[in-house]
């Protein structure tokens, strides 16, 4: 039980990586706050994990009051807060032609500003428990794809936030802040998104070996397994670090030989 007794708030945890993290946290002995916009899925996950181990909050992170509401709910339900996982994000396609200012601001609000605001709201309580923050970024933070402009910029900003707060909050409050950058992960939303773009239902079975040397893309459970290390006491005093979780090197990568 690597997370025994801990209480962890996981945003965007009704599906995908966030759901896998919440499930793994409970399996490791933690209690969790599930958050998302999909009420049916959120309530179903609470029933799966056990009402004594999970509580669900339906809330839009773009609203200024949401971070405080989430922190208040987790404290009212479980009496403490040991970790925040900033996982929720708008994963949306856009480029220089299709990214208007309103859209850009919305993406930044959800993907970058909301994690900052949640850290602010949670900090007094994380200080009491020598807690931590785990931000879920993306390998797109390093530059991103042409059609993921706003999303990539938001994740790049989140990465800088992690490194900055990972230093200052640990020095001043004993609160660690780290980040994992998943590569291409087979979440429910990603599977649906590709089908909406015209791909066959089994598109993930025929991904190029250049992108997926393993013959498949990553699974949410693999991201959750990595998350546990950063949420547990095993990671010790490590703070301000960003780790890429992909199956090939992002820099200096060579195409496969034929």
From TrEMBL:
Gene3D superfamilies: NAD(P)-binding Rossmann-like Domain. InterPro entries: NAD(P)-bd_dom_sf, Sc_DH/Rdtase_CS, SDR_fam. CDD domains: SDR_c. Pfam families: adh_short. PROSITE patterns: ADH_SHORT. Belongs to the short-chain dehydrogenases/reductases (SDR) family. This is SDR family oxidoreductase. It comes from Rudanella paleaurantiibacter.
């Amino acid at each position: 039980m690597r997370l025994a007794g801990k209480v962890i708030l996981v945003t965007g945890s009704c599906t995908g990586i966030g759901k896998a993290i919440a499930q793994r946290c409970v399996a490791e002995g933690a209690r969790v706050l599930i958050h998302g916009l999909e009420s049916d899925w959120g309530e179903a996950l609470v029933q799966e994990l056990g009402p004594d181990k999970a509580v669900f909050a339906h809330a839009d992170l773009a609203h200024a009051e949401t971070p405080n509401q989430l922190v208040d709910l987790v404290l009212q339900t479980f009496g403490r807060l040991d970790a925040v996982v900033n996982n929720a994000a708008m994963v949306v396609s856009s480029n220089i032609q299709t990214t208007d200012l309103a859209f850009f601001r919305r993406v930044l609000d959800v993907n970058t500003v909301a994690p900052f605001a949640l850290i602010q709201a949670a900090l007094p309580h994380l200080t009491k428990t020598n807690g931590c923050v785990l931000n879920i970024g993306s390998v797109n933070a390093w530059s991103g794809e042409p059609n993921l402009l706003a999303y990539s910029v938001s994740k790049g900003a989140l990465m800088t936030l992690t490194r900055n707060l990972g230093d200052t909050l640990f020095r001043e409050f004993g609160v660690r802040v780290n980040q994992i950058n998943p590569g291409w992960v087979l979440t429910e939303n990603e599977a649906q998104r590709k089908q909406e773009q015209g791909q066959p239902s089994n598109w993930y079975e025929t991904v190029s070996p250049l992108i997926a040397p393993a013959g498949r893309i990553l699974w949410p459970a693999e991201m959750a397994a990595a998350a546990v290390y950063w949420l547990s006491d095993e990671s010790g005093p490590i703070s301000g670090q960003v780790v890429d979780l992909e199956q090939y090197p992002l820099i200096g990568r060579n195409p496969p030989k034929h």
